[in-house]
Amino acid sequence: MLHFQLISIIASLWLYCYQKLLNRMPMAPNVATWGALLKACKKHGDSEMGRRVGRKLIELQPDHDGFHVLLSNIYASKGKWDDVIEIRDMMKKLRVLKIPGCSMIEANGVIHQFLASDKTHLNMDAIEDMLVEMAMKLKLEGYTPDTNEVLLDVDEKEKESIRFRHSEKLAISSIFVSERVTLSQIQKSKKSF
User: Fold this and answer.
1) Cα gap 136→162, rounded to integer Å
2) What does pTM read for this prediction?
3) The listed CATH number (1.10.2020.10, 3.30.920.30, 1.25.40.10, 1.20.1440.60) that belongs to domain 2-93
4) pLDDT digit string (tens) for 97-152?
5) Signal sequence: where (predicted)?
6) Which of 47, 76, 132, 141 has the fewest beta carbons closer than 10 A?
């Protein structure tokens, strides 16, 4: 346990030093530099510094959906739902739309695209059935989905359902329900900050 406490202290110290370095740079730090610090705040659970850095980024680039979402996620991970609502309201006011990540598969020469909780695929009923079957089998084997990353104010069962409906899980399930699939590639889009 002491080992993890030391790692936490070192991470906090590193974040503090990084921010001090940014403030002392001879040139103004750019958005990418501040964005790296915001991602580190999220990773290491420093919501106070994350709040300051996130606000700075939103001030520098108010139309960037990723900064709003990451700051909202930092608040949500600490259960600060009023702050989450404030950020989402700010996004509405500024007309900033969250661009969803997606997963794509190419099977038999056809590209299929999936978004999280997507219901638009022609074979969605069979894909949903496969998801349920896969979830049951995984649970029987002892798998428990990590619901800590579901940053919504919903109960644990709903969080598990959300975790099982990520775009990549939908894409993989679609492979299992298809007959004679020649799979060319699976691709997940990545957002950049």
Assistant:
1) 15
2) 0.62
3) 1.25.40.10
4) 887 778 888 777 778 888 877 788 888 888 888 888 888 888 888 877 666 666 56
5) 1-19
6) 141
